[in-house]
Amino acid sequence: MRSRYTAYVMKDEAYLRASWHPDTCPAELQLQDALGARTVWLGLTVKRHAVTGADSAEVEFIARYRSGGAAAVKLHEISRFVRSDGRWLYLDGIHR
C-alpha cells in the first residue's frame, strides 16, 4: 500500500500498473486533473490492515491530497489486494 502511495506521489505510472491486478487495471490513469494541474499528495495514514485469506488482504487508509489550488481532500478507502505469483496486487477499493 505504501509503495503505491509513493508511486502516486512520484507519478510513477509504470509501477502503478505493475502493482495493479490486470483484471481491474484501468486503460488510462488520471495522474493530473482536467486543467493539467498535478495532484499534490499531502500524507498517508494506514488505519488498519488484515489478512483475509491465504492470498488476499485488505488495507484501510486515508490519503490527503490537493489538486490545483483547491482545498485539501481526504480519500478514505478500504483496498483489496491479492497475491499472484508471490506479488501483492491491488484489486479494487471501497471509498468511505
From TrEMBL:
YchJ-like middle NTF2-like domain residues: 1-93
Transmembrane regions listed in the UniProt entry: none
InterPro entries xrefs: NTF2-like_dom_sf (IPR032710), YchJ-like_M (IPR048469)
Signal sequence annotation: none
Pfam families per the UniProt record, alphabetical: YchJ_M-like
Gene3D superfamilies given in the database record: 3.10.450.50
Protein name: SEC-C motif-containing protein
Source species of the chain: Pseudoxanthomonas wuyuanensis
